[in-house]
Amino acid sequence: MSGQVGDLSPSQEKSLAQFRVNVQDVLSALSNADDSFLLRWLRAFGTSHPLLVVIQVVKIYGANSICGHDREGGPLWYHIAGGLDVKGLFLSASKQDLLRDKFQNCELLLYQCELQTQKLGKKVEKITAIVDLEGLSLRHLWKPGVEFAPETPGEPVPPADCPRESSVPVSAPSLFAVAFNLIKSYMSKETCRKVVILGDNWKQELSKFISPDQLPVEFGGTLTDPDGNPKCITKINHGGEVPKSYHLCKQVRMQYEHTVTVGRGSSQHVENEILFPGCVLRWQFASDGGDIGFGVFLKTKMGERQRAGEMTEVLPSQRYNAHLVPEDGSLACFKAGVYVLRFDNTYSLVHSKHISYTVKVLLPDQTFMEKVEKF
Fold first, then answer.
1. Residue 274 class from Cβ within 10 Å (0-12 exposed, 13-18 middle, 19+ buried)?
2. N or C, where is the chain less crowded by C-beta within 10 Å?
3. 264-285 pLDDT, tens per residue?
4. Dist CA 60 CA 41 (whole Å)
């Protein structure tokens, strides 16, 4: 164990080990990330702090894993859709938390591609995603989850260096046709073309893409856990039902500075004047009465109200399930001006939404200002 941490109880050691696993993708960027450093976080927040709860629930129950390589050397990405508790995850983490997890997953896959490029002496830039649909049922077709599923790590368009992906749905039940028709309406034609659907002999077909020694026995290969488990649960996360103790709607009780009612078929604008480039705009909000659209815009004319289409869109408007889990976010403002937080309820012709929110402006640090002045 790195660092002097003193005597720990078995439960403390378990919490520390789990925390290190949960944040392993960011530890490489920290020079002082020994056990003492991690323990300060755990002791400051407590293992039940909402931030750590979110990290834990997404990692444990997200049903996503990297294990093995395809025949071209690209990393294998597993998504065990049938074991995913979609609603439980959305009740335990905000949309931004889930998107951040997708960003981290994309970074891990890029790192794996780089390692394979060095190892094989050829450029590796494609991954193969295996989507196991056994156990897919109507509970997986919950509307917020269906809308979120096609989103990629890099909203709304994946970054240029994001690895290219081929998806191979396996063990697809009859409900898959319904699910795919719902999801593909949110997907580009290019993404749809990458999906290869295998039939009843999917295990044999899968071997065309992946060598058996890179596949678990469960998927027609030869890999097992040390105890012989064919599912390779030590390498592949199969998800599972999220315990209700993780549901943030029962844990988070935030105090907001403002409230506003957004009428049916209308929107509300919250203006924030940014005087210096480099300021950071931060917000937190929750809705009552249903989901709410949210986006950030920059005014092009001062002193008068503008419609969304007349302003510069800075953060694309999306619908958030803020009635289930509070949302938070931030934006680095590289231009001075009036930034408008827009709560959008124009899509709802029946229900008004009550929004509680807090907005803060963080001033730029001195280092940033010096860089701006030099430029």
1. buried
2. C
3. 999 999 999 999 888 889 998 9
4. 20
Among 90, 75, 93, 91, CA closest to 236:
75
Partners of residue 293 on adjacent β-strands: 319, 344
Find the DSSP H helices in 62-148.
86-92, 95-120, 143-148
**Helix (H/G/I), strand (E/B), else coil: 116:** helix
Kindly report, residue by residue over 114-166, the tens digit of the pLDDT.
999 999 999 998 899 888 888 877 677 666 676 666 554 333 333 334 455 56
Instruction: Give CA–CA dist 267/127, Å, rounded.
Output: 41
d(CA 205, CA 212): 11
Name, in order, each residue with C-beta under 8 angstroms of 196's C-beta and a sequence gap of 6 or more: 166, 167, 168, 169
Q: Note whether 54 and 105 are within 8 A (CB).
A: no
